[in-house]
Design goal:
Helix content is 61%, strand content 5%. It is mainly α. The protein has a 5-stranded parallel sheet, with helices on both faces. Strands 3-4 form a two-stranded antiparallel ribbon. The radius of gyration is 28 Å and the shape is globular. The N and C termini lie far apart (67 Å).
Length: 613
């Protein structure tokens, strides 16, 4: 208990619960659907420990802001910089040049404790999968370090009396909780990454430390309360994945954690949390958290994306081994040494080390050393993603195939021609140019927006998506368009909702053609192709294919035909029955330029097999 008045084994055990939940969730070990809530448990623990330290030192009259920040630097910075440098070195050696982009910003942001801001602002539609971004988990350290920087200043607001500070923490926490609730639906990324929407979790721990909710005096009542809180905590870790956003998913485990912090000491639940194995894992929890995610990301990118049970055990064991090394060789010795040093030199040295690591990451990623030479054919494959993008900007004023059109200018009926509406998301946009070129006699109206899928009788994904889609479908019915093509990145839970969309259009006398899901790969087709070519092993490519898309294709075919529409299987066009899936187009391009979007040549080949709309 860093800087606390006494050591509590149950708190070390809570750290163990938190880190184990996160690791098992990230490794895909069932049944920990809410394991991501381990981060929220950590936040509440941090708020409790830090508030206890600050209030005690302020009450005793020997609080020093510089000494407080020195302890934070000693606790957090050495291990983080060590892991960041190791990740950077391994990435430069193992990754293709095209994959270095996954570290371009996060490698700089992580040592500066700005990762949460970076990932909040830099999560574009065509970004690499989160599972292969090796420093993604550093967002939570950004939240904590920003809290450590600002929170003492909040408590230094000139107020008399301990309880006025408690009221200040409570007010800030309530405001943060309200903000989190508001952001949950409107701005989910901000709710996830930003300190203002996360402060309430840390503040809840602070309120527990400040004694706002005192522990029950009766021993049996405390024991029962602690036991119920521990059960609630474990149930949250198992079933918390049913919630979509940090709010309200984080409420049960953070409240349970706060109750355990005030009631578990000396109880049966507290003794269970304080058993030796849990204390040992708790001591390693910071290094475990730092190491587990890069190990999983490396394996998923460089070996195989899907983790088998044996692989899960192996990677978790490797995480423990590296965490133990990091703890005993870096984290603990440097923490002890830095905590004894003069505050200002330690702070200055920590800041310089962070800046130097960020500068090194920037230089290495933007001007990478030539570790290996790639064969020209492999280099050409890897260059494809940099040259191609689907035009997905719905505000482009053009209605030509060079850019996806504006709704107001591209939903116009042209008399005397066959008018067909193409609607959906970027998986519809990828066919647009090829459709225009193959069917020059057809006038295509377009209604496309990123992540807008047929849903609940419309083509949309909520809010502006649904309004735009409903306008397009209303126009299709009122203006009597001749046909509608629906194409999107379909999801299993939305497939059945496609039935009323198709049936409604057919009832209006409109021909409907639904283009099914494309084949998808994890993490990215060009990199899988390149590794297959270098190893002369097609299995590397085939192992990356997502099997669930084939099952969805079969289910959707039955749904669409049952509703009276026509169905075209893009999956079977790429993976014919009883034949291997195509790896390249006739021109030698990859079929996809990322996980599943088609390259232009592939889109032409797929559209050539489509029935006339």
């Amino acid at each position: 208990m860093d800087g606390g008045p006494r050591y509590r084994g149950d708190i070390e055990g809570l750290r163990a619960v938190a880190v184990l939940a996160v690791i098992l969730f990230h490794a895909g070990v069932p049944p920990f659907g809410g394991g991501f809530l381990g981060v929220d448990i950590f936040f509440t623990l941090s708020g409790f420990l830090i508030t206890g330290i600050l209030l005690r030192e302020m009450a005793e009259g020997h609080f020093s802001l510089w000494a407080f920040w020195r302890r934070r630097v000693a606790r957090i910075v050495p291990a983080l910089l060590f892991v960041t440098l190791c990740v950077l070195a391994a990435w430069l050696v193992m990754a293709f040049p095209s994959e270095l982009a996954t570290l371009r910003g996060s490698g700089v942001a992580a040592p500066l404790f700005l990762s949460n801001l970076f990932f909040w602002r830099n999560n574009p539609y065509f970004a690499p999968l989160s599972e292969v971004q090796p420093l993604l988990h550093s967002w939570s350290l950004g939240v904590e370090e920003q809290f450590y920087l600002l929170y003492p200043l909040l408590l230094l607001v000139p107020l008399r009396g301990r309880y006025k500070r408690t009221a200040l923490i409570a007010a800030a926490s309530i405001a943060s909780l309200a903000l989190a609730a508001a952001f949950a639906a409107a701005k989910p990324s901000a709710a996830f990454y930003l300190l203002p929407a996360r402060f309430w979790e840390l503040g809840l721990g602070g309120l527990a430390a400040a004694g706002l909710v005192p522990a029950p005096r009766g021993r049996r009542v405390r024991a029962l309360l602690a036991a119920l809180a521990l059960v609630l905590l474990l149930l949250s870790i198992v079933f918390g994945g049913a919630w979509v956003s940090p709010f309200p998913a984080a409420l049960p485990p953070t409240v349970a954690t706060a109750i355990l912090l005030v009631a578990a000491e000396g109880s049966a639940a507290g003794r269970l949390l304080a058993i030796a194995p849990m204390r040992a894992i708790g001591r390693l929890s910071y290094s475990l958290y730092l190491w587990h995610w890069p190990i999983l990301a490396f394996w998923r990118l460089f070996v195989r994306f899907e983790l088998t049970p044996g692989t899960q055990v192996l990677l978790i064991a490797l995480s423990f081994a590296l965490a133990a090394f990091s703890f005993f060789a870096v984290e603990r010795p440097l923490r002890r040494r830095l905590r004894k040093g003069p505050p200002l030199p330690v702070l200055a040295g920590g800041a310089l080390a962070c800046l130097a690591t960020a500068g090194l990451a920037y230089a290495a990623i933007h001007h990478p050393p030539h570790v290996r030479r790639l064969p020209p054919a492999v280099a050409r494959i890897l260059a494809v993603p940099h040259k191609l993008r689907i035009p997905v900007d719905p505000y482009d004023p053009s209605c030509r195939p060079a850019g996806i059109p504006r709704q107001t200018t591209c939903l116009r009926i042209v008399p005397g021609r066959r008018n067909v509406l193409l609607a959906g998301d970027s998986h519809a946009a990828q066919y647009w140019t090829a459709l225009v070129e193959r069917f020059p006699d057809i006038h295509f109206l377009v209604s496309m927006r990123t992540a807008c899928r047929p849903k609940g009788g419309s083509i949309g994904g909520g809010g502006r998506c649904d309004r735009r889609a409903l306008e397009a479908l209303d126009l299709a019915r009122k203006e009597h368009v001749d046909g509608v093509i629906l194409a999107s990145r379909w999801w299993p839970d939305e497939a059945e909702k496609l039935r009323p969309v198709v049936a409604g259009l057919r009832a209006a006398g409109i021909d409907v053609l639904v283009v099914g899901p494309v084949v998808e790969y994890q993490p990215s087709v060009p990199e899988l192709l390149a590794r297959s070519m270098l190893a002369h092993d097609r299995r590397i490519y085939d192992d990356g294919r997502v099997p669930a898309r084939e099952r969805l294709d079969r289910a959707m075919a039955a749904i669409v035909r049952g509703a009276g529409g026509r169905y075209f299987s893009a999956y079977r066009a790429e993976c014919p029955p009883a034949r291997p899936c195509f790896m390249l187009t006739a021109t030698g391009q990859p079929i996809h330029f990322d996980y599943g979007h088609l390259t232009p040549d592939a889109a032409e080949e797929i559209v050539a097999m489509m029935p006339r709309p």
